[in-house]
């Protein structure tokens, strides 16, 4: 066989692939949808994870495309994506026409990577059944049951902070806060004392870090985003094997111990165990297999420790930059605690209204989930247009972009909790602020996340004064490798004990 006999078919194959990619990148132009000009192969995301966080890049695209159409056309590599730029369309996607957008379209691989098949990712009837089963876990009654555990962890954190600042007043808070939330979630999800506050090398904390540190090559990302069925065929996984093995073993040991010893703790794991099937990998009767239980416990841990610790870190950062707001928050906490005899009760935490406004403003400025994902499950005619979103089209909501849109939040870079007084909220479009999503797929654990955040912050603000130091990043820069919006290089602040009069 001559060299040309090899080169000609290879050249024809390359040409065919090239033409296929070019055609894919003409998708929005062919449909007369305003779009951002894509780059070959990389679409509009070449600089994501290199220069920009995905939330920042989508914020740029939102600003570029807003006002031209209810959505703009962009590309994740070669995959066409509808970027929502109109809040009425956002409402339709999340709530009004939810039946068209009930799946997220995020990649998971139940066969090779069972922990990835959790509530956030799964689709269709399986999601509906699981969501309705898990929702009772997060009622106010269940929150009250878990409340003492969170308070005890916050007390330990407070004591640890006092010990820490005696030796070094300038503290990297992001890791400390993640250790606090890891301990809370470990107890509430698994009934296990992680002890990561005193031991930064505790296994739960180490594995929590590894979840967000796993590097992925461009080819894997391309397959997961543009050709998920091919990615599954090749067995591409989301979660590192050592992380998966660790959580599988923890869940297996926890279930075994509780069942054999008839232990009930009224926590998240109890709910899952009551739904347990005797099958290992497949169940069609509404019960949960071991793999499914492990996946839900994993996502509760995953979503609970990183998002809450990032929110707490950003809040302390803004309070350090705005001492008058910090003092007002501290006064709010102290006045409420005085009314409750100095005790951090569930009712006291719910009465800290100014602290809640501070948290809402921080969620506006630094939403942990900076982009929401949906996928059209059937053809959808976009209201007020002739444009049809074809079944299978990804729809993304640029939360960071909308939260920084001066049309909805004037002077968006200014930190102002007064944006969230009842009067100001009533003036604003109800879908301008969606850090947890909205509608049936709103974050199921938001009450728990806000509870552990509120308790931890209330304890810290009452006891300590936070200010900037030489290592504090001003202006803020984000960790571009972390899907969760988090500070680059940690969160360094000066921490001093509050001197009560």
Tell me what the structure shows.
Helix 14 runs antiparallel to helix 16. The model has no long low-confidence stretch (mean pLDDT 89). The chain starts with a helix and ends with a strand. The chain is built from 19 helices and 9 strands. It is globular and about 80 Å long. It is of the alpha+beta class and 501 residues long. The protein has a 4-stranded mixed sheet with strand order 1-2-7-4. It has a 3-stranded antiparallel sheet with strand order 3-9-8.
Helix content bin: 40-55%
SS class: alpha+beta
The whole-number mean of residue pLDDT values reads 89
Q: Nearest-angstrom radius of gyration?
A: 24 Å
Q: What is the general shape?
A: globular
Spatial strand order of the main sheet? 1-2-7-4
Give the biggest beta sheet.
4 strands, mixed
Assembly state (oligomeric) = single chain
Order of helices and strands: HHHEEHHHEHHHHHHHHHHEEEEHHHEE
Work out the helix count: 19
Regions with little confidence, pLDDT below 50 for 5+ residues: none
End-to-end gap: 92 Å
Number of DSSP-assigned strands: 9
Strand content: 5-15%
Q: Which keywords apply here?
A:
single chain, 501 residues, alpha+beta, four-stranded mixed sheet, 19 helices
């Amino acid at each position: 066989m001559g060299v040309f006999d090899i080169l000609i078919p290879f050249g024809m194959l390359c040409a065919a692939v090239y033409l296929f990619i070019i055609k894919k990148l003409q998708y929005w132009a062919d449909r007369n949808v305003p779009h951002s000009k894509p780059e070959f192969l990389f679409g509009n995301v070449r600089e994501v994870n290199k220069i920009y966080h995905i939330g920042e890049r989508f914020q740029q695209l939102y600003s570029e495309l807003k006002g031209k159409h209810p959505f703009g056309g962009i590309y994740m590599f070669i995959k066409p994506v509808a970027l929502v730029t109109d809040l009425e369309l956002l409402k339709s996607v999340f709530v009004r026409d939810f039946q068209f957008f009930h799946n997220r379209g995020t990649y998971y691989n139940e066969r090779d990577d069972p922990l990835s098949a959790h509530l956030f990712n799964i689709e269709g009837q399986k999601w509906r059944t699981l969501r309705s089963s898990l929702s009772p876990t997060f009622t106010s009654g269940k929150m009250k049951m878990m409340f003492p555990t969170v308070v005890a962890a916050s007390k330990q954190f407070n004591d640890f902070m006092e010990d820490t600042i005696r030796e070094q007043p300038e503290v990297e808070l992001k890791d400390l806060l993640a250790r606090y939330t890891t301990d809370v979630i470990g107890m509430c999800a698994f009934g296990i004392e992680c002890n990561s506050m005193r031991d930064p090398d505790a296994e739960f904390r180490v594995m929590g870090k590894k979840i967000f540190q796993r590097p992925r090559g461009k080819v894997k990302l391309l397959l997961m985003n543009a050709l998920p069925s091919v990615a599954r065929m090749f067995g591409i996984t989301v979660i590192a094997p050592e992380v998966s093995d660790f959580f599988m073993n923890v869940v297996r040991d926890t279930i075994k111990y509780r069942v054999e010893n008839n232990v009930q703790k009224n926590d998240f794991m109890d709910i899952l165990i009551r739904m347990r099937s005797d099958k290992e990998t497949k169940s069609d009767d509404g019960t949960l297999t071991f793999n499914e239980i492990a996946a839900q416990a994993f996502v509760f841990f995953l979503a609970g420790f990183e998002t809450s610790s990032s929110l707490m870190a950003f809040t302390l950062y803004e309070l350090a930059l705005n001492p008058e707001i910090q003092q007002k928050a501290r006064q709010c906490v102290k006045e409420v605690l005085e009314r409750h005899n100095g005790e951090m009760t569930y009712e006291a935490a719910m009465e800290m209204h100014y602290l809640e406004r501070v948290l809402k403003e921080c969620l506006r400025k630094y939403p942990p989930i900076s982009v929401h994902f949906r996928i059209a499950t059937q053809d959808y005619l976009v209201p007020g247009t002739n444009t049809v979103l074809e079944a299978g089209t990804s729809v993304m909501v640029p939360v960071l972009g909308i939260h920084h849109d001066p049309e909805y939040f004037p002077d968006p870079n200014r930190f102002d909790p007064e944006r969230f007084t009842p009067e100001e909220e009533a003036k604003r479009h109800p879908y301008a602020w969606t850090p947890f999503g909205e509608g049936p797929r709103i974050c199921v654990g938001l009450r728990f996340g806000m509870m552990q955040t509120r308790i931890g912050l209330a304890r810290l603000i009452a006891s300590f004064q936070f200010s900037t130091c030489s290592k504090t990043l001003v202006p803020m820069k984000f960790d571009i490798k972390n899907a969760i919006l988090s500070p680059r290089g940690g969160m360094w602040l000066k921490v001093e004990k509050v001197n009560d009069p």
